[in-house]
Amino acid sequence: MTANAYGHIGVICGGTANEAPISRQSGQGVLDALHRLGYSASPIDPINPRALLACDTAFIALHGPGGEDGTIQGFFETIGTPYTGSPTRASSISMNKRITNTVLRYAQLPCPDTLSIHDCVGPVVIKPESEGSSLGVHIVHDTADIAPTYAAVLAEFGSAMIESYIPGTEVTVSLLHHNGAFIPLPILELRPVHHPFYNYEAKYTAGATDFILPAPIPPSVADQCHTIAQAAFNCLGCRGFARVDMRITPDNVPYILEINSIPGLTPLSDLPAQAKHAGIHYDQLIDIMLQSAKLEA
After folding, report:
1. What DSSP state is assigned to residue 144?
2. Listing from the earlier edge strand, what are the strands of the sheet with 161-164?
């Protein structure tokens, strides 16, 4: 499609969620790319709802609650403005980690067990049900620390869940779905330098994580990861793009940790790095993502 086909593009970023600073970084990157590509575009912060009416197409770079949970998608559906990425239902499911786990396990896709606080022993993972960027995620090894950590997460974020801890290699599978097919992207292994896992600080501090591209895993395991990630994407009804975070156990069994329907697009984010390794420069990536813009109906 031509630039004129999208009219004026609103880059939706900012907001009031905990990930707002990251959203603004993603949004600025998207905005700069759209301008270089010749599109008419401007940033829109949803804290000013009236401004959302001023665009013909919405490029959603809004992370966390309000942006990835179907709220903004439902708004644009209501007013008839095409928007990028997954539709309302897929967004709302993927943002809630407990529901995502339930849906994917029902589809017989490999996920960690969800546990009750009353009968679990360490190590476990405790995290909010609906946050991104690994905010509030804790790996708890000592059983005595489970209850107080769960209470602290619940108090800070309003929800908490416990999953079995999956040891092994942390990888992410980014997905681009374009013209009816998935564009092959390399699997990325994430090796935090100073942190026990790929937490918020490891994600957004320069030099805090080594990106290994492609991940040094057997080809058969890589194929399995791609197959599982694509099945999860389709199971939830995602559209255009997503990122599936996984752990691969020492005996090469992959498990889905979560699905991110609006991956970060900052200079330190995973999807741009994987796309670049595949020969897709940042501006081209943004153009491909823009082409996912539509209404659910």
Report:
1. G
2. 114-115, 161-164, 124-127, 138-140
Asked whether 61 and 30 are in contact (CB, 8 A), the reply is yes
145: domain CATH number is 3.30.1490.20
103 and 237 assigned to the same domain? yes
**Concatenated DSSP letters for 272-295?**
HHHHHHTT--HHHHHHHHHTT-B-
Q: What confidence tens digit (pLDDT) does each residue in 163-181 have? A: 999 999 999 999 999 999 9
48, 188: one domain: no
In angstroms, the CA 25 to CA 265 distance is 8
pLDDT tens profile 241-280: 999 999 999 999 999 999 999 999 998 889 999 999 999 9
pTM tops 0.90: yes
What number of CA atoms fall less than 13 Å from residue 100's CA on the CB side?
Answer: 34
For residue 78, count CB atoms less than 10 angstroms from its CB and return exposed for 0-12, middle for 13-18, buried for 19 or more: exposed
Give every CB contact of residue 59 below 8 A, 6+ residues apart in sequence: 9, 10, 11, 12, 30, 34, 41, 83, 84, 286, 289, 290, 293
CATH of the domain at 219: 3.30.470.20
Domain that holds residue 58: 9-84
Pair of tokens at residue 297: 């109906």
In a shared domain, residues 101 and 240 = yes
Q: What is the dihedral of CA 49, 52, 53, 56, to 10 degrees?
A: -170
Residues in CB range of 129: below 8 A, 6 or more apart: 96, 97, 98, 157, 159, 160, 161
Domain count, the chain: 3
Chain segment 179-236, per-residue pLDDT in tens: 999 999 999 998 888 777 666 676 667 777 888 999 999 999 999 999 999 999 999 9
Same domain membership, residue 272 and residue 187: yes
Residues 118 and 25 placed together within one structural domain of the fold? no
